[in-house]
Specification:
The chain is of the alpha+beta class and 156 residues long. It has helices spanning 2-11, 35-53, 57-61, 77-88; strands spanning 64-68, 71-74, 94-104, 107-115, 127-137, 140-145. The model is unreliable at 1-10 and 148-156 (pLDDT under 50).
């Protein structure tokens, strides 16, 4: 009888209903965003890149901050000097914002390219890519270095 009951139970056609697959590509934002946030970050980045392009590297670097212990602070002098060397060693002719990615208030990315040549249909522009990290603190956006110097204790 026990064997018969086990056999009948195993013959039931109770297959689990397949769940629809969710396609999730990349990390999804963990914060509420508006089109104003995107526009603000894009403007901050464009202002920074335009200053670099115009050769006003010190003014550009003064727009970069650091996040330390959940406070946004100006860059320390040693980090400022590194940025001045990086952005001041080439004459930049053009730039492009390649990608804006928002994850959370203390961890977002803007990837950009700086070009050593003006755009030309005859050849590909020479240049390099770099990244900055937009940070929103108390409703205000700042651009910070993307080299791991920033540190935050609060997860948003």
């Amino acid at each position: 009888m026990f064997v018969l009951l086990a056999f009948v139970a195993s013959c039931k056609n109770d297959k689990p209903t397949p769940k629809p697959q969710q396609e999730v590509y990349g990390q999804q934002p963990e914060m509420a965003l508006s089109s104003n946030d995107t526009a603000t970050v894009k403007k901050l980045t464009t202002d920074f890149l335009e200053l670099v392009k115009q050769g006003q590297v010190e003014a550009a670097v003064n727009q970069i901050y650091m996040l330390e212990n959940d406070d946004v602070r100006p860059l320390p002098d040693d980090e400022k000097q590194k940025c001045l060397q990086v952005y001041g060693q080439f004459e930049i002719k053009d730039y492009a914002i390649n990608k804006l990615t928002f994850f959370k208030e203390t961890d977002s990315e803007v990837e950009f390219s700086l070009y050593l040549d003006a755009p030309s249909p005859d050849r590909k522009q020479r240049g390099f890519r770099n990244m900055i990290r937009p940070v929103r603190r108390n409703g205000v956006w700042y651009i910070t270095l993307a080299n791991g110097y920033q540190h935050s204790e609060i997860e948003h």
